[in-house]
Cysteine desulfurase (Hymenobacter telluris), 380 residues
Amino acid sequence: MTVYFDNAATTPLDPEVLDAMLPFMREHYGNPSSIHGHGRQVRAAIENARKTIAHLINAAPAEISFTSGGTEADNYAAFGSIRTLGLKHAITSPLEHHAVLHTLQALEKAGDIQLSYLRHDEQGRLDLVHLEVLLATNPRTFVSLMHANNEIGNLNDIAAIGEICARYDAVFHTDTVQTMGHYRHDVQQLKNHFLVGSAHKFHGPKGVGFLYRRSGLMIDALLHGGSQERNQRAGTENVYGIVGLAKALEIAYRGMSEHQQHIQGLKDRFIDKLQQQIEGVEFNGTSAQADQSLYTVLNVSLPPSELNEMLLFNLDINHVSVSGGSACTSGANAGSHVLTALGCDPDRGAIRFSMSKYNTTEEVDYAVEQLAKMYRKVAV
Ligand code: PLP
């Protein structure tokens, strides 16, 4: 059996998405900026994709800008807001993805901002009282706090954070890369200025995504050149990627509750089986608490063992693909900045299982069995 449990890294393409993209690789090759028929046909496909995405998140089409993925969207929101609006302070958390952390650190290094880090507890739950304290002394701040953590799956209450940010007139960006296509986002119910989508996290193609930017908030482009995306993002559009992105989000919304139920069932099974078969197993962050974590991610903390260095390798040779790594390893394998921030035990191993609609209960049983086998070998 070959098993893929690394869906937070990327997901397999849905065949229906590929079918939607193929005509734009084969027949519809016009440049969308061309005014002739070949171009107009492709332009129409891009605008339809924009409308589809806007409709699904309850936004206006003009609020959607296509990007090369989540990283570019995070950079665009941060650089655009901070530089255009002259914001001098930003708040984030040490648990953010590097697409946000390194971007804000680059802006700090360039002298644009002073950067503050929000406090959190040992399970990675953010301290929203600290957020208020920071905002009270620094109004008109850029705040970037993710919806779900890609490593430990913790869900942040972005509705509550948005209310706090609104009280202090802060610009609020949320990296929703791990939740777009997995939860229903309604921008009318949120106070966010920005949200992000990356197609390859919900069975779409790699290298394409979007930034939702609330209307009225004008920011400068990140990429300069042609006048594509209403001067917001220069460069000939990734047409088939954009078509695939919209199709993938449409499919995700169509089957969302059914898939959520299926995947949560797999996660519950993982938790049960791991607890039955591996003594001393624990879960990092709020991973094992269904109401506080992304249903696609389970971050497992394994008891101290000489095997922990080789966990991913040993699973890989048994055809199980996962992500992980110990938090406190050194040298070439610098470990996880998220687990390090949680104050990990350097002797414990860590594995992230991340699931999709394509995984099965048999695959869960197989993966747990492979892992348990290793620990049983050590125990005898
Ligand atoms: N933000 C989060 C939370 C992610 O998990 C990822 C990808 O793993 C990114 C940003 C980057 O997205 P992309 O791969 O589309 O650049």
Q: What stands out?
A: The CA atoms of residues 88 and 113 lie 4 Å apart. Residues 327-333 have pLDDT under 50 and may be disordered.
